[in-house]
């Protein structure tokens, strides 16, 4: 008990004195004693202020939560951790990111055990914002947070971090999960374009062995692509890792068949295919998406009609897209007009639909603004690309590799005049 | 498409009747193509050699439903084979006849045996001769020997062996003329074997001959090349070759193709694959090809009708010709495709100059009904071959003028988004790779 009390005193003293780095050293030497006392540490926390003594608080919390703890102990921990995350000092916790991440992970585990994922959403978001060095940085908390969002159906909260572009990754596995969960959240929000982008990242990411995340992502990618684009090309881009190119299709045979039957444009064919693999889709938890695929085919077929017809009766629409009645066709057309997917007017008197051209004339201020912002975005991206290029060209490892290869051909050149080669 | 065929069926029958009455005398002079039932005898008289037999057998196979025609064809094939030495083919034909033509056309075992025996003797003789030549190393004689062997096998229906022997003569060819001869023999056998890849290669070999070829040979080569392209479904190239065929061809190549065929094949392929300009310049104004077209007035007429936009009569001619063209050994496979393409071309051309088209008028011009026409147009519009939209309510087709400005804006924005996305995911991948590399580097420093 003395050791702990001494430590607490140390924390209080050093934190208020502002000598955080010294404190860090002290704390680093302490863990063994802390772990030994882990069960009795909780009350000690009351003596500390999470916003002022963040680092010390973090170490003690970490010690409390590590090791196996009972459910009651766990639920007792949830509240202090949440408060701590909300009020801790960013600079202090960044000194010990490992500890912080592990505390947050324990926190998420506990919330899951309590089956109250909603409680974890807000603190986790705060935690991510505090620990990440820039918005482009993917921490290992990202996937955990998205998982909580998914489980608590807080898709909107999830979208807030999916809007950031991620470039820096610590762990490939984090990225896989992040993109996979992110894709699911976007699908839940019907943002198929973004979902496709995320899932695409999973499928095409460099990998040396095939993994389950990629396989599941590929399944969802196929379905989302059918819903959004109405087509799916089975050929992966050539930068995809060869493992993925070889194996993915074998794992997703029913989905590939679904895509094939979709391309024929016949509802019955698609439905027989869905029936055939219904169990499989259900086991993969994708049946809901598969149903969306079916309804998207009606839309696709109606959209195709707008390309060929100026006017068409509702009955004809029903016939050509294989709907049961004109009434049903009207509902579909109405819905599509509402969603801005087609431009048309329905004349209920004689049951005719008049398809119009896209009224967008690209003349409005908003459009100009939109174009301008696109240009800005692309320019920023291009700057980033240049910076990246420069960064790599001056990377020691890269140069070492290139230099080694070069040396083989031209030893003198490399050795004596190193400034001569520019990459 | 099937729908229209049914509806326009009676009309075509009428047309057949009218044509049959009007053109009876003419028919006899150019029997190959008529709207009446094929005159097998006249048709067969256009050809000679093995192709005659094969064509007759082909007709017999295709016209199972029409027994009179089938037996007629088989009878003539029987007679023709008797003149030659191909006993295998003889047995096949006898089996196909199956005694239906009476005792005169039954199995003639004595003849078979005699021919076979003679063939064995001849083969032995040829072998001895060839061996003698080979020991003496007289190039020209060896070439002749192989060539004789080729002829021998060809006559007996062993096409593979014939081809091998003809090709073997190549090593002993001393003049360009010999090479051309070798090529022509190989082409002939290859066509019989339906090995059209060989045909193309030997045609180009013959054309590379340093000496100027005589016009008949050139025409023959053009025909062979045309056939090869036709079989490869390269209709445009086939049309060009047939159109280049010189009128010197005459009946010199009737062991492969009759001049009437050149007109039909060339005409149909041209219609299916040429645009209006090409059709005018290369077909209608082509003096040379006109000679061929004169042999088959129906094809000439239908090309002219097509060019002058009389689609109904053009399609009528096509419909009338169809039954007989289906009996053609080379064209039958491609007829549906060609007809489909010609019809599409006609539809596209019809709509092209108008801002709006009344579908009723268009349907009557194409002898079909409005709903069928709508379906066809829908397919063409979906394929982006016709830039128009259908007003299904008032049955009018409106041309659609693509708004370049809007399309450009749309494309620019889309391209920008795609670029954005691609670059981002690329940067991400680069980072992953870098990370992996760093890991490797740190593991084994």
TrEMBL record, chain A:
Keyword hit for Cytoplasm: yes
Claim: Cytoplasm is one of the keywords in the record: yes
Main location: cytoplasm
Compartments (UniProt record): Cytoplasm; Nucleus
Transmembrane region(s): none
Domain PCI: 191-360
GO CC terms in record: COP9 signalosome; cytoplasm
Similarity annotation: Belongs to the CSN3 family.
Protein name: COP9 signalosome complex subunit 3
UniProt organism field: Prunus dulcis (Almond)
From TrEMBL, chain B:
Pfam families assigned to the protein according to its UniProt record, in alphabetical order: CSN1_C, PCI, RPN7
Keyword Cytoplasm: yes
Keyword Coiled coil recorded: yes
Residues of the PCI domain: 234-404
Coiled-coil regions listed: 116-143
PANTHER family membership: 26S PROTESOME SUBUNIT 6, COP9 SIGNALOSOME COMPLEX SUBUNIT 1
Similarity comment: family membership: Belongs to the CSN1 family.
Protein name according to UniProt: PREDICTED: COP9 signalosome complex
